[in-house]
Write a structure and sequence with these properties.
single chain; mainly beta
């Protein structure tokens, strides 16, 4: 018998990512929300996001190769709040919950305080089990 996971099972993980209401560009990888601005320099953010599948900043659908994928909308013109080398993009839920949702790498580039940065559309894909 082949391995199988219904779309709804994979979507459960992707829906957790799509709960993010903040995006950050940072100089290293945080492992918790508390790291943002503490041990990890925030270079841009928080960039406000509209959480939830299909609400504007996140769309869950079929994966490019297999499985399922959440696509994160591009965020253009975000203000750079500190000078440094951008290496990561972070999704989080702020406010009273302060939850780190997802961290990915980006093409390293030097950002200068007072300028703006664009974060292109990107996605997180979970493949079907094999």
């Amino acid at each position: 018998m082949a391995k199988f996971a219904p779309d709804s099972t994979i979507d459960g993980m992707l829906e957790q990512i799509a709960l993010a209401d903040e995006m950050y560009v940072t100089d290293s990888q945080p492992t918790s929300y508390a790291d943002l601005g503490d041990s990890v320099a925030v270079l841009a953010g928080p960039i406000s996001l509209t959480p939830g599948d299909g609400n504007g900043d996140f769309v869950i659908g079929d994966g490019d190769v297999s499985g399922r994928k959440v696509t994160v909308a591009a965020q253009n013109g975000a203000t750079v709040v500190a000078t440094g080398d951008a290496t990561h993009v972070v999704l989080a839920t702020g406010g009273s919950t302060d939850v780190l949702r997802y961290v990915t790498t980006c093409t390293q580039q030097t950002l200068t305080q007072g300028n703006t940065v664009n974060v292109g559309e990107w996605g997180v894909e979970v493949a079907d089990p094999t």
